[in-house]
Write a structure and sequence with these properties.
The protein has two helices and three strands; from the N terminus they run αβββα. By secondary structure, the protein is of the alpha+beta class. The protein has one domain.
Length: about 90
C-alpha cells in the first residue's frame, strides 16, 4: 500500500495540503497512516487513527480501478483524521 501511495504522490495523481506530509506504513495485511507537518518545529509529531486492515478491492475491477479503490481508502482515512481535528469538543 505504501508503494502505491508514494507512486501516486510522485506522479501528482494524489495531492493534498503542501503543509502536511502523508506517511503510509504497511505490511500487506494492513497499514498505518500518519500525517506530519511538512515545516515548522513540530515535524516529528504525527497524527494517526491507528492501524487499518487492508480492504481488498472487488475482483471484477480493472487494475487502474483497483489502484483507485486502494488510494480512496487512504484519502478517506486522512480526511476523517483532519475532520476529527476540526470537530468541536
Amino acid at each position: 500500500m505504501s508503494d502505491l501511495v508514494y507512486a501516486a504522490l510522485s506522479a501528482g495523481a494524489l495531492v493534498g495540503d503542501p503543509g502536511l506530509e502523508l506517511n503510509v506504513h504497511g505490511d500487506g495485511v494492513g497499514y498505518l497512516l500518519r500525517l506530519n507537518n511538512a515545516g515548522g518545529r513540530q515535524q516529528l509529531v504525527g497524527l494517526t487513527r491507528g492501524w487499518h486492515e487492508l480492504e481488498r478491492p472487488p475482483e471484477d475491477l480493472s487494475p487502474s480501478e483497483r489502484a483507485r479503490y486502494c488510494l480512496q481508502q487512504i484519502c478517506d482515512i486522512a480526511n476523517t483524521l483532519l475532520s476529527d481535528l476540526l470537530a468541536p469538543l
